[in-house]
């Protein structure tokens, strides 16, 4: 595998013809690969620019028995093909052939996860019929989220922003294990979110709204912090209670506090886990079931600004 | 109380409600090596509740600050935590300590006051203390009212470490004492083997797949070998081990649990009671180990002599610090067991465990019967190896299958190949320590992976007659095996008598 191309999505891969992909994968797999149990196929689809960062992330997943297929959009019915021991890159494929490529390259009898990094939403329906799980990850997800209900009839759908919220949601939920907080749940109607990504904030707000059965149209307060983490702080409360989660100055940690009438009920510093792309998509790879909480959150976020 | 409205659809595993863990034996080895690192890892993984505290209790009075220092030191030594760690600092702030004599009721009053002061809800008592102190602590917990909560949220549970008794009578006595103060639902008898992923996976492997259970019986399985081999010697446990030996230390608990998981019938549901009922059934089907008729014994014991293990010369057991120079305590034991059940009639289960063996490994090897017809006998000079299904419990948790394949570029030569599944690599996430799993289960009130009172007693009722026989026939000179070898020749003879041999490890 020596004909490296630093400009490729798979720089260490070897340029081959499409029909030679399987054979090349077999011969490239080392002893360690042969001993490893296969666990599924991960397909990344998006523009070349959107895939560069993601390709670096999936490189970290090469040890978990996943076959990775990177497909960047272009205008070429016969795209450039490069193959490494664990991955295939098709560069410049016309979007209308996306389904055909996925159908040909997925591992048989094992789950296929499609990580959709944006593009025309017309490809989503076809992908949903092929994928066991479709993870949306568009810079502006508005159009894609409008299709979630229809896509969910065909496959399990999620959004990488939802994976980013996993730890935040769990921390907020832990507060509701405290009897005082649980008793006040129906009164908690004021939500403030800070971060660099308004869509992540909106998804969190949708989750709170659907879980606490807020009336439709209830809004929340978002403060954009450009250049920061997608989500940096959350505060949920009413006049007398406040549940707060805030990124700590220490990297990877969140300070949590539940205050009732000024009294501290439970405050602590906890890890927010690895929020890198590899960890987030790794989390998605472990989930198989339909995510109704996500679907409800998307639905409830409609109309929220 | 209504359910938590934000719980639905959370991707993380369930988290217990507000909990305080009270560790008796808070300055001991188990706390330092296992419990404190496990709590830290649970906290990092967001598995601890928003309101969580630890009260350490020990004979020496060292105060909150020294307990917190010991916590940080333990994390540095056993959890690889270097430098400042905000998660550790946050957890440390919720660690408290109280010291004194376990016989003194005042210590329990101080625990009760602390629980009230921190507004504790659920309380989990962990008896990480020598078995000799169980009785005192359990009685005092009962007498001071600490064993009973005032509401559902104020649950009270107790984790009891092994060994749970030293024979059938003492186990029954301990169960009786525990049940005077705690109901069975409150009692969690820990066996850390059950917290290992592979052991839990055995249930999934058997009952979550359609392909294995149909062959999981006497028609297809020739025999089962369960091995728990250690390279270490008695180390600093001579005081305990001299009175225990391998049969009490390993077989009565760990190996009997593994045997039950292999041999049990399918539970109707995956509920704690169903699973534990079926495990008990499996154990109750076992034939007695002591057979008074003449014939090959079902149990072989031995003790390690000096030798060479893992690149070092090591002393004989009798030369270890704290061990009697005339000790006859067994450091190795091999057993042959038969289960009188429809599924297992005629299928022997061979169990072996020992210290100072060549490798550290625990595994269950299920050897299938050979094909009914040896059709390759005329074309291949080597005999066909029987299929093996191996469950690796430690290290390298996973499952392997051995089967025959045709050697390429030969007319029809066969060779065995191994197909391996490894937890460490297959899912790309670290395998949790057994104590993390078990602590969390106890906080959640799930007893599936804990030993029930009747299982413990059934296990002792298997083992105690062996000890009684041994006490009638004391060894003046135990059979020896050289440290670094796979046990004594008598163990080989035990299995060779059935025309089988121990698996090469």
Explain the overall architecture:
The complex is a heterodimer of chains A (305) and B (505). Chain A has 305 residues and is an alpha/beta fold. Helix content of chain A is 35%, strand content 27%. Chain A has 13 helices and 14 strands. In chain A, α3 packs across α12 (277-286) and α11 crosses α13 (292-301). The relative contact order of chain A is 0.13. The model of chain A has no long low-confidence stretch (mean pLDDT 88). With 505 residues, chain B is of the alpha/beta class. Chain B has 13 helices and 16 strands. Chain B has helices at 29-44, 63-78, 86-92, 105-117, 134-143, 168-181, 197-207, 238-263, 272-284, 423-426, 434-444, 453-472, 489-496; strands at 19-24, 52-58, 95-99, 122-127, 156-160, 187-189, 221-229, 299-309, 312-314, 332-338, 348-354, 361-368, 388-394, 398-406, 414-422, 480-483. In chain B, strands 7, 8, 9, 10, 11, 12, 13, 14, 15 and 16 form a 10-stranded mixed sheet that branches. A 6-stranded parallel sheet of chain B has the order 3-2-1-4-5-6. In chain B, α6 runs antiparallel to α12. The longest helix of chain B has 26 residues, at 238-263. The termini of chain B are far apart. The chains are: A alpha/beta (305), B alpha/beta (505).
């Amino acid at each position: 595998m020596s004909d490296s191309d630093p400009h490729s999505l798979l720089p260490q891969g070897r340029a081959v013809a499409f029909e030679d992909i399987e054979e090349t994968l077999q011969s490239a797999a080392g002893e360690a690969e042969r001993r490893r149990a296969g666990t599924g196929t991960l397909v990344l689809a998006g523009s070349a620019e959107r895939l560069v960062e993601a390709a670096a992330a999936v490189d970290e997943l090469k040890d978990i028995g996943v076959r990775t297929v990177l497909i960047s959009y272009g205008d070429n019915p016969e795209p450039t093909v490069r193959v490494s021991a664990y991955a295939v890159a098709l560069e410049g494929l016309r979007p209308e052939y996306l389904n055909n490529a996925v159908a040909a390259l997925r591992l048989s009898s094992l789950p296929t996860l499609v990580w959709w990094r944006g593009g025309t939403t017309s490809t989503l329906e076809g992908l949903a019929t092929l994928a066991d799980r479709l993870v949306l990850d568009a810079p502006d997800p508005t159009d894609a989220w409008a299709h979630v209900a229809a896509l969910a009839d065909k496959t399990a759908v999620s959004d990488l922003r939802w994976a980013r919220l996993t730890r935040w949601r769990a921390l907020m939920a832990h507060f509701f294990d405290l009897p005082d907080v649980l008793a006040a749940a129906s009164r908690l109607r004021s939500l403030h979110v800070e971060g660099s990504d308004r869509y992540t904030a909106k998804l969190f707000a949708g989750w709170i709204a659907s879980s606490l059965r807020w009336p439709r149209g209830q809004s929340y307060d978002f403060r954009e912090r450009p250049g920061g983490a997608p989500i940096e702080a959350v505060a949920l409360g009413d006049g007398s209670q406040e549940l707060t989660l805030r990124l700590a100055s220490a990297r990877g940690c969140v300070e949590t506090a539940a205050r009732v009438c000024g009294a501290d009920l439970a405050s602590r510093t906890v890890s927010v886990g690895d929020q890198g792309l590899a960890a987030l998509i790794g989390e998605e790879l472990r989930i198989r079931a339909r995510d109704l909480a996500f679907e409800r959150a998307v639905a409830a976020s409609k109309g929220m600004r | 109380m209504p359910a938590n409205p934000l719980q639905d659809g959370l991707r993380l595993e369930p988290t217990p409600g507000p909990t305080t863990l009270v560790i008796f034996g808070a300055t001991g080895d188990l706390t330092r090596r296992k419990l404190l690192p496990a709590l830290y890892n649970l906290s990092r993984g967001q598995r601890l509740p928003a309101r969580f505290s630890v009260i350490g209790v020990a004979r020496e009075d060292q105060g909150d600050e020294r307990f917190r220092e010991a916590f940080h030191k333990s994390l540095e030594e056993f959890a690889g935590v270097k430098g400042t760690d905000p998660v550790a600092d946050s957890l440390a702030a919720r660690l408290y300590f109280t010291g004194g004599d376990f016989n003194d009721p005042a210590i329990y009053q101080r625990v009760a006051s602390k629980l009230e002061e921190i507004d504790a809800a659920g309380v989990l008592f962990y008896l990480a203390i020598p078995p000799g102190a169980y009785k005192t602590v359990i009685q005092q917990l009962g007498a001071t009212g600490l064993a009973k909560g005032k509401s559902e949220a104020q649950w009270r549970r107790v984790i009891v470490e092994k060994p749970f008794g030293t024979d059938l009578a003492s186990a029954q006595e301990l169960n009786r004492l525990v049940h005077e103060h705690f109901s069975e639902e409150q009692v969690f008898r820990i066996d850390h083997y059950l917290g290992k992923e592979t052991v839990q996976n055995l249930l999934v492997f058997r009952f979550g797949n359609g392909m294995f259970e149909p062959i999981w019986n006497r028609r297809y399985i020739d025999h089962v070998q369960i091995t728990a081999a250690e390279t270490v010697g008695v180390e600093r446990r001579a005081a305990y081990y001299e009175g225990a030996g391998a049969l009490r230390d390993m077989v009565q608990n760990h190996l009997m649990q593994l045997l039950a998981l292999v041999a049990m019938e399918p539970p109707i549901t995956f509920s704690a009671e169903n699973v534990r009922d079926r495990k008990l059934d499996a154990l109750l089907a076992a034939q007695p180990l002591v057979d008074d008729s003449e014939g090959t014994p079902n149990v072989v014991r031995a003790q390690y002599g000096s030798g060479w293990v893992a690149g070092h010369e090591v002393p004989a057991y009798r030369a270890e610090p704290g061990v009697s120079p005339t000790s006859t305590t067994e450091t190795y034991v091999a057993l042959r067991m038969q289960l009188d059940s429809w599924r297992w009639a005629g299928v022997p289960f061979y169990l072996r465990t020992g210290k100072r063996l060549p490798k550290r490994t625990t595994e269950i090897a299920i050897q299938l019967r050979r094909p009914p017809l040896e059709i390759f006998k005329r074309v291949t000079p080597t005999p066909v190896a029987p299929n093996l299904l191996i469950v690796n419990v430690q290290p390298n948790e996973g499952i392997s299958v051995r089967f025959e394949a045709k050697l390429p570029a030969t007319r029809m030569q066969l060779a065995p190949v191994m197909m391996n599944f490894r937890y460490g690599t297959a899912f790309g996430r670290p395998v949790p320590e057994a104590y993390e799993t078990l602590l969390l289960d106890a906080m959640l009130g799930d007893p599936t992976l804990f030993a029930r009172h009747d299982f413990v007693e059934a296990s002792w009722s298997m083992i105690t007659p062996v000890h009684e026989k041994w006490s009638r026939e004391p060894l003046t000179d135990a059979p020896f095996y050289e440290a670094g070898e796979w046990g004594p020749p008598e163990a080989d003879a035990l299995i060779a008598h059935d025309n089988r041999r121990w698996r090469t490890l």
